Amino acid sequence: ICSECTIALSHGKLPRLALANGLFRGQLPDQFLDLTWVEERICAIYYTTAHVTRLFQSSDPSQPKVFHGNTCAHDMNVVSTAHILPRTPADVTGSLSVVFVGPGKFDPAWLGTMFRVRKSKVLAFLLWLKHHNRLYADIPIDPEILCLYPQDGILPGLCDRVVEDNE
Q: Tell me: the pLDDT tens digits for 13-23?
């Protein structure tokens, strides 16, 4: 048990983030189990973190598409709140950075599904959220913003957020 829950329970109170407070809304339908973290971010009303991904390319020239790395989420001192969804690509990439470390030149095609966006999946998720989550009920969906995303591809504008370290 975390310290916050321990303190609340020691005072005979229900912890504010306990499942018993009705914050757990159940499992997502199977059709959304393959949502990427970027697609979820596109549909998020609130942002409280910025993400930095570090990718290390293999130093073996015979394996230029082999990477290892990690993504760190950093708390922001402000909360970004959306009043129209989906969020624009610029809004999403504004809180993302990719640090590419390796001997080769960065090629976004090598990212695979790490920053994948599927327009139809984003729209379906937003429509589902509007019908199943009261926080989304009155937030309009802007079809013009949705058109800024690919049918199935990398997050637009991501390449502008890449810092290369080729040493």
A: 888 777 666 65
